[in-house]
Amino acid sequence: MPQYLLLLHEAPKVTNLSPDAMQAIIQKYKIWSDTLKQTGKLVDANKLHRDGRVMRGVTVMNGPYAEAKEVIGGYFMIEAANYDQAVQLARDCPNLELGGTIEVREIEPC
Amino acid sequence: MPARDSRDAEGLVGHLFRHQAGRMVATLTRIFGADRLDLAEDVVQDALIKALDQWPFYGVPKNPTAWLIQVAKHRALDLIRREASFEEKSVELAARWPAASEGAGQAVLDDQLAMMFMCCHPDLPRESQVALTLKTVAGLGVEEIARAYLAKETTIAQRLVRAKRMIREQRIVFDVPSGAELAGRLDVVLEVLYLLFNEGYTAHGGENLVRAELCEEAIRLGRLVASHFRTDCPKTHALLALMCLHASRLPARVDTGGDLLLLGEQDRSRWDRQLIDRGLLHLERSAQGGELSAYHLEAGISACHATASSYESTDWGYVVELYDQLYATKPTPVVALNRAAALSRLKGPLHGLRAIEAVQHDPILRDYYLLPAIQGELWREIGDKEQAAGGYRRALACTCTEPERRFLLEKLRSVSGEAAFT
After folding, report:
1. Nearest by CB to A18, which of B4, B60, B144?
2. What would the DSSP string read from start to end of B28-41?
3. Of B353, B358, B354, residue with least CA distance to B333
4. pLDDT at position B4
5. Average pLDDT in the A73-84 region?
6. CB within 8 Å: A37 and B15
7. Do B391 and B379 meet the contact criterion of CB atoms below 8 Å apart?
8. How near does any CA of chain B get to the CA of A19, in Å?
9. Which of B6, B19, B42, B53 to mutate to test the interface with A (most CBs of A within 10 A)?
10. Do B52 and A17 touch (CB under 8 A)?
11. Which label site among A77, B29, B88, B409 has the fewest CB atoms less than 10 Å from its CB?
12. Nearest to B342 by CA among B363, B371, B316, B362
């Protein structure tokens, strides 16, 4: 089964969310990823550190993301038959509802 | 993915974040000091944000509470290392939150109660006491508090800032008072809870008749107060009894269309039996001791309704008697009006109308829709449609919630055939 990376570009976070509001977001993610898990579609998921390095030629820059609006917050690796199905599975990801975007990329087998 | 499976938890129960935030802010305020409440709040907010960052990807940890405490503890230790004046506080932190702490037990209860006493300090203005209690003890966000009070977010934020500044300037201490001071200070805490509850029970305007969340939170905090040996006293139980008994009727107060139902029209099978039982239990415990507070009497009245099998079989004689006593303790025009309504059930609508006359020009009741609404209702019972319609029209001119407005319009239509558009 082909594998896909769902790269979650997160919308700038609202920092003063209430505890209830935060819990509600987590709950939504849980429902979404539980479904992926139960149907055997979830391969892996990881949160990326906000801090990073960008290297270009001989220069190394800290945290390249300050100027970028949507940082990649993390990724989910899933299995899907094709792009259509991958998109279908990503459709309910709460990141979209929160104003972020999702980049769906098929992993090319060697 | 073995790592993921081990993290698979049953999920997040109820208002875990909100309640845990309250507990952690309390403990950190104990450690950092009342003047550093902001710092405690920041640490807790950071811990919650870290959960919000990670849990979507890694799942909810097996023990979310322990996870949050652990993260907050690390954040707090970072701060302590950076501030010279905090040198000795790491010991305190370790003692307060031992490894794998569940965040429960007597110490945390002490902290939470101390936090309530601080928020409800008599030197703070009432509105700040309420806002601060909701924010720091109950864990509500500024936006949520603003929504509940139909106020602007900036207004609530200002109240909180002002309250915190006063805590610093007046060196208000973080502790559960004792001795001679305790009773008076507890009175303020109970008053604030009573206000919270009433705010939730009788919304002042807008679409939502009942903001059950505020009621729920007031009851939760009331139980917290009652569970501490220092504040587990008859008056606390009387307030809890009153809140539980009132809240038991919340599910029946509106019909399926969201329209208001009066006590006599409510389907009593929809009353929450569990809350009634709990309320009666608290009422029993409130009877130990010599004091008969307004909470006792209001709880007693509520119990009369809760235990009557129907509106008609209510012991109105006893209800009126309790209202008489309540008026003697708390001679407010609202109590007088309620007493008049009960009297009309006991002796008939004319007696009720006559009793209302005594308070009908009280300035406090000028914009109180229930006064003309009750007059309208009593005139309708007598059969005087014109007077009844007048009452309903005057009620509609007062501030009321959307369901209340619909209710009054319906009543007006029934006596005048008037298809009023207001």
Report:
1. B144
2. HHHHH-GGGHHHHH
3. B358
4. 41
5. 96
6. no
7. yes
8. 5
9. B53
10. yes
11. B88
12. B316
Is the Cβ pair B60, A73 closer than 8 Å? Answer: no
| Contact status of A91 with chain B (Cβ, < 8 Å) | no
User: Cβ of B16 and A23 within 8 Å?
Assistant: yes
Nearest CB to B57; choose among A21, A37, A47: A47
Tokens describing residue B152: 């602007």
Name chain A contacts of B139, Cβ cutoff 8 Å.
18-20
Q: How far apart are CA B233 and CA B216, in angstroms?
A: 21
Which residue, among A36, A80, A22, A100, has the nearest Cα to B4 in the 3D structure? A36
pLDDT value of residue B82: 85
CA distance B67 to B24: 12
Exposure string of B89-118, with b = 16+ CB inside 10 Å and e = fewer, is beeebeebbeeebebeeebbbbbbbbbbbb
Is the Cα dihedral B283, B289, B290, B291 positive or negative?
negative
Q: For chain B, list residues with pLDDT below 70.
A: 1-11, 99-104, 203-210, 418-422
Adjacent-strand bridge partners of A42: A78
Q: Cα separations (Å) of B52 from A102, B145, B383, B402?
A: 18, 22, 62, 36
